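Notebook entry, cofactor series.
This is the third protein in the set we're modelling with a bound small molecule. For this one the ligand is S-adenosylmethionine. I'm keeping the input format identical across the series so the outputs can be compared line by line later. Sequence and SMILES below, as received.
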Amino acid sequence: MSSEPNIKPADAPRRNFYGRRRGKALRKNQIKHLDTTLEAVSPKGVSLEENPDRNPIDLGALFGNDKPVWLEIGFGGGEHLLHMAQTYPEVNLLGVEAFLNGVAKIVPLMDEHGLDNARVHWGDARDLLEVLPDGSLDKVFLLYPDPWHKTRHHARRFVNTENLDMISRVLKPGAIFRVATDIENYVHHTLERIMPRGDFEWLADAPQDWREPWGDWTRTRYEAKAIREGRTPHYLTFRKI
Ligand SMILES: C[S@@+](CC[C@H](N)C(=O)[O-])C[C@H]1O[C@@H](n2cnc3c(N)ncnc32)[C@H](O)[C@@H]1O
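Returned structure with ligand:
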């Protein structure tokens, strides 16, 4: 067996991407799962080659039902995505992650747990958001987006006007957008970009609303690291108006 999976990124690199696409060598078992399972659990019509006109993709066909769909952007190792898919069998979970090693971690686990309500896209979340139908999602999770600490790198942060426009478009009115971050500056960055827009309402009355995790939360790998290193999680909840 080759030490590389046969797959290539589903999306052509159309936008600048500054994160990592691949990390250390994948294990044989991971390569096997990627080669045999990834295509079956991935949405069709995300890449420019498959969908040059950027038509909306068919989420009903992807999941085989019309249950509500929740999207997790940058799921990392997939702990939260798996937890949500197991906790909410009445919901469809769609995850997108640009880092192959994260995708390689979750695909065998989806198989092992026999999850039929989770799907994943290996690629850039912006390419996926672009082809999601208007008002098609009930929740979006952006959990510990890359912090890009330096001021000159803030333009790389996932929370920006273009991405918020896409997230706003794909959320139903009344749908929820959750953002978690351990970087205080990212809290301000997010609020400064969301609050003036007028299409999201921040659901916070008191500090515990952003200091305490959501009732159905599970700690992600990145959050565990942040806490070990002495940083404090913040949990922001927005409702699409
Ligand atoms: C700091 S990590 C957090 C991972 C995970 N959410 C957690 O809490 O453990 C940020 C993740 O977002 C992914 N990411 C960043 N930009 C992305 C993009 N445009 N599309 C898809 N994934 C992206 C990175 O590859 C990385 O895995």
